[in-house]
Amino acid sequence: ADIVDLTNRSAIGAMHNSRQRGEAPKCHPNTRVAVQEYIFGWITDGEGDEEPKQIMWLTGPAGTGKTAIMGSVADTCYHRGLLVGSFFFSAVVKSNHVRSKARFVITLAYQIQQHPALKRTIGRKILSAVVDDPGIFEKSCDEQLEVLVLQPLHDCRQLIDELKPDKRPRVIVVDGLDEC
C-alpha cells in the first residue's frame, strides 16, 4: 500500500483547499470577525478551560454563512499548522464523493498521512493499517475511524504531546453534515 491507495479512495474535492472548493465562500476581511475570534480562542485556549470541550458545533439557519466561516477557520488553522484535516460535505457539488459519508474517514486519514508534523509517524501507522487489512476501505465508517484515525493517533499520543502547543495539529473541520 502506498499514498495512491488513500488518494484514489479519498474525496479530495471535499478538503478545504481543493480546487473544487476554490470558488467556495470564505469570509471577506473584517466580516464575521467576532465569530471567528471566538472559534480561534476556543481552539487555541480551550484546553485551559476548567472542563475543556473537544467538539464545537456551529449552528444557524441556512444561508447565514456557516460554510464561509468554517472555510476561513480551516484555512487559518491550516496556515498555522493546527489543522489535522477537513471535510466539506456539499449537496451542490457534482461529485458524489462530497455528498456521501463513504469517503469521509478515508479523506481524514489521507490528510493526517500528508500532514508535515504527522506523516512520518502517524502516517506510517495509517499505511501499515492498510497493509494489514486492505479490506478496511469496504468496512463500516466506525471501523475505518477506529483503524485509520483513532488508533494511529492514540499510538502516537506521546509524540503529539511533545510538539509545541502552538504548532500541535488538533483541529478537524467538518461542514455540512446535514448534506450527506
From TrEMBL:
<feature type="domain" description="Nephrocystin 3-like N-terminal">
    <location>
        <begin position="50"/>
        <end position="180"/>
    </location>
</feature>
<dbReference type="Pfam" id="PF24883">
    <property type="entry name" value="NPHP3_N"/>
</dbReference>
<keyword id="KW-0677">Repeat</keyword>
<dbReference type="InterPro" id="IPR027417">
    <property type="entry name" value="P-loop_NTPase"/>
</dbReference>
<dbReference type="InterPro" id="IPR056884">
    <property type="entry name" value="NPHP3-like_N"/>
</dbReference>
<protein>
    <recommendedName>
        <fullName>Nephrocystin 3-like N-terminal domain-containing protein</fullName>
    </recommendedName>
</protein>
